[in-house]
Amino acid sequence: MSSFTLPDSSPSVSVNLTKDLSKDQLLSFPAFKNWVSTLQHSLSLQRSQDHTFHASPYKLRKIDIQSVDFFGGERIGFIKLKAEVTNEDGEKLPGSVFLRGGSVGMMVILQPDDAPQDSETDKNVILTLQPRIPAGSLALAELPAGMIDDSGTFSGAAAKEIKEEIGLEIPQDQLTDMTKLALPPTEGTDGEKLQQGTYPSPGGCDEFVPIFLHQRRVPREQLKEWQGKLTGLRDHGEKITLKLVPLEALWREGGRDAKVLAGWAFYEGLRKEGKL
Q1: Prediction pTM value
Q2: Within 10 A of 242 (CB to CB), how many other CB atoms are there?
């Protein structure tokens, strides 16, 4: 096991690596870089006399890398670490962290093209059903998750399934970032500079999820066909499938998924404020 001092850290932060992880690999992992810079900035705010912890500020003193999961050989997927964050009074802040970085949630709403414009009539939302072993589930209903690829298109396993099942591709210029519209920006402010996304499990994980919206009007007969087809029932061995649910039932049908609840809350709130 090797160690190094975190660059530009004050006080000096000792980083202890696992045997299968190098200093360069860790420092180039985007999730680690984002987490360290965000945390260090938040800690620096304690210098203000108005800060809750000003009298006895907390400092990052040590990082122990506990395990690393690699995807496809050398690409880091996940890192589990323990951060030591203490003050001079010997008080500690919980520091067990599962690093994985951000992802994207996609709320896709389909509506018959003969419904009144600017109405909520007959709107349906696409959910995915797929195994989620960390949740102990083989069929968890959730908003499609993935990423925005280099070409500006929603991509990943859920996007592939949407394209295969109903032929729907979602380009970037047809996306609305509801998170950006709903949450106040942190850049250029005097406060903490958190990521522009929802944190599903901030007590143990750095993951943040921007929620994007895509609305499309389609022929009513086409939507009926999809409603009959996208029931969530999977063929033998099929890992992921789609389900269309009425918008008004979304909070119940997908209520175990934080992306669903965040998307539903953003959509309802932004619509009431006239931003959608």
Answers
A1: 0.88
A2: 23
